[in-house]
């Protein structure tokens, strides 16, 4: 039977997710948004692009969650995006209310469906979705590490003038200023960048990665990035729906790994049909581990302050 993915939120990220999913041709796509007519209109537009782009994916739009019934995966992109000068954490108060209302809808129509969270602040929103869902922790995960890693990959390739596909990278921690790019695990065709670039260039690239979202927000002025975030999200959806066993960084629930528990943060996982099938514990150096723990504990503090 054809797989089905529901994308909640039909704004910039949600619509780009729907487009990439449609083009990937492996699932039906439903887009849900509170704005009347908008998801239906975008779904019709995407359907009409199919003959030119070479897909026959069924794409539909809706304003209520009955349309999500039978989904194999729900991608949550509903929520406000940043404007220049804002941090992702500045979105907390508005987006927590949006997430709570989204979870009421999801619980009513798809109580046992895996959740892939994109809304910011990402690690807190992923925790909230999990908390409100009652699902096992492996079934709820957040997209951040793939995006932060592809940003680092792109900057390494730009610096070295090499193919972006030959650059691999690993970025751990929360999806915010405290994220932890790992140069030791960032390579070009297997060669660590620590052997290819001087420390000051690596530090500059790592900082540009941390600021990668803000750089785009500053340029766009009216919203935040969506092409790369959506591409990263669809790579995760593909990993789950097609059981790819991808080893990638994503926001996952920790229960003792890296000395952390009861928090979602970016760590390397194996992602397949069981969701987060394994969390990989890297042998981090002391400063790397401390940075990861510091990043996660900042989000733990926010989680403790959330309304029930
Ligand atoms: P956007 O403003 O373009 O779209 C958000 C959509 O959510 C709007 O269409 C809005 O109508 C909808 N919405 C609001 N409340 C809703 C509700 N209760 N139910 C359903 N839909 C609702 O914003 P965007 O650029 O698409 O970004 C969406 C979210 O994704 C933001 O929180 C943004 O910060 C986040 N984001 C995350 C990443 C990441 O890597 N995790 C990257 C980019 C953006």
Q: How far apart lie the N and C ends?
A: 39 Å
Strand count, sense and barrel status of the largest sheet are: 6 strands, parallel
According to CATH, the fold-level topology of the largest domain is: L-2-Hydroxyisocaproate Dehydrogenase, Chain A, domain 2
User: How much helicity do the residues have?
Assistant: 40-55%
Strand order of the largest sheet: 3-2-1-4-5-6
**H/E series:** EHEHEEHEHEHEEEEEHHHEEEH
Rg, Cα atoms, Å: 19 Å
Number of strands: 14
Helix-and-strand structural type: alpha/beta
- CATH class designation of the largest domain: Alpha Beta
Ligand names? nicotinamide-adenine-dinucleotide
Q: What low-confidence regions span 5 or more consecutive residues with pLDDT below 50?
A: none
Q: What is the count of distinct domains?
A: 2
Shape: globular
List the helices and strands and how they pair.
Blueprint: E1 3-8, H1 12-24, E2 27-32, H2 38-53, E3 59-62, E4 73-76, H3 92-109, E5 114-117, H4 122-133, E6 140-142, H5 145-160, E7 167-168, E8 171-172, E9 180-181, E10 187-188, E11 191-192, H6 199-210, H7 212-220, H8 227-241, E12 246-255, E13 261-272, E14 275-279, H9 286-304
Parallel strand pairs: 1-2, 1-4, 2-3, 4-5, 5-6
Antiparallel strand pairs: 7-10, 8-9, 10-11, 12-13, 13-14
Helix pairs in contact: 1-2, 1-8, 3-4, 4-9, 5-6, 5-8
The chain binds nicotinamide-adenine-dinucleotide.
Nicotinamide-adenine-dinucleotide binds at residues 8-14, 32-35, 77-82, 91, 95, 98, 101-102, 118-120, 122, 143-144, 147, 175, 223-226, 229.
Provide key terms for this protein.
L-2-Hydroxyisocaproate Dehydrogenase, Chain A, domain 2; three-stranded antiparallel sheet; globular; alpha/beta; Rossmann fold; 42% helix; 9 helices; binds nicotinamide-adenine-dinucleotide; 308 residues
């Amino acid at each position: 039977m054809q797989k089905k993915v529901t994308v909640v939120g039909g704004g910039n990220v949600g619509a780009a997710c729907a487009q990439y999913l449609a083009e990937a041709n492996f699932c039906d796509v439903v887009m849900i948004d509170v704005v009347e007519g908008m998801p239906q209109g975008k779904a019709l537009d995407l359907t009409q692009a199919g003959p030119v782009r070479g897909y026959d994916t069924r794409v539909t739009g809706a304003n209520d969650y009955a349309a999500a019934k039978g989904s194999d995966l729900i991608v949550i992109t509903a929520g406000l995006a940043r404007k220049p000068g804002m941090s992702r954490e500045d979105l907390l108060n508005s987006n927590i209310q949006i997430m709570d209302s989204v979870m009421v809808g999801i619980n009513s129509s798809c109580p046992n469906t895996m959740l892939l969270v994109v809304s910011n602040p990402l690690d807190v929103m992923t925790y909230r979705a999990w908390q409100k869902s009652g699902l096992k922790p492996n079934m709820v995960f957040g997209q951040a590490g793939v995006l932060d890693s592809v940003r680092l990959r792109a900057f390494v390739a730009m610096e070295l003038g090499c193919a972006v596909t030959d650059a691999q990278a690993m970025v751990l921690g929360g999806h915010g200023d405290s994220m932890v790019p790992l140069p030791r695990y960032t390579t070009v065709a297997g060669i660590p960048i620590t052997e290819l670039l001087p420390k000051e260039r690596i530090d500059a690239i790592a900082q540009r990665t941390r600021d990668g979202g803000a750089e785009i927000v500053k340029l766009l002025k009216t919203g935040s990035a969506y092409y790369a975030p959506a591409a990263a999200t669809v790579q995760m959806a593909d990993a789950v729906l097609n059981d790819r066993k991808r080893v990638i960084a994503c926001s996952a629930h920790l229960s003792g790994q890296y000395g952390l528990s009861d928090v979602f943060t970016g760590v390397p996982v194996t992602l397949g049909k069981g969701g987060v099938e394994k969390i990989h514990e890297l042998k981090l150096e002391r400063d790397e581990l401390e940075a990861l723990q510091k990043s996660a504990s900042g989000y733990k503090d926010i989680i403790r302050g959330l309304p029930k």
